[in-house]
Amino acid sequence: MLGWVIACHDYAARDYAEKLEAQYGPLTLCRTVDYWAGLSTNMLSRMMCDALWHVDAGDGVIFLTDTVGGAPYRAAALLSHKYPHSEVIAGVTMALLTQMYPLRDACDSAAFRDAIVQAGGEGVTSLWHQQQKNPPFVLLRDK
Question: Is the pTM of this model over 0.85?
Fold first, then answer.
């Protein structure tokens, strides 16, 4: 089962998790990280790392964030480079999380990433999709 880290501004992550629990029961391998004004990026990174550690059962981890480029998205992006089978998604909504929750058992991380981006429409993207638009910088001497 894919682990989920829901990380959003203010208390949206906690709200999403509470609504999912009301519909599906206790959330296995799911943690929330709420980011609010004044929280240091160091503390956010530590909270994200702790959440990752708790949800990683070896099948992959999906970071679900609210906005592209926001602090939770950036912290998740930095962590995802160190962990294979992790994906960073931005633009999640409650309706989208509800729709995608059953796929946690059915997909690997890459298939889940593609499914949630397709289901979410224009407002949803992933770190991988963003990197395909803007490939990493390569020095000419490294070619």
Answer: yes
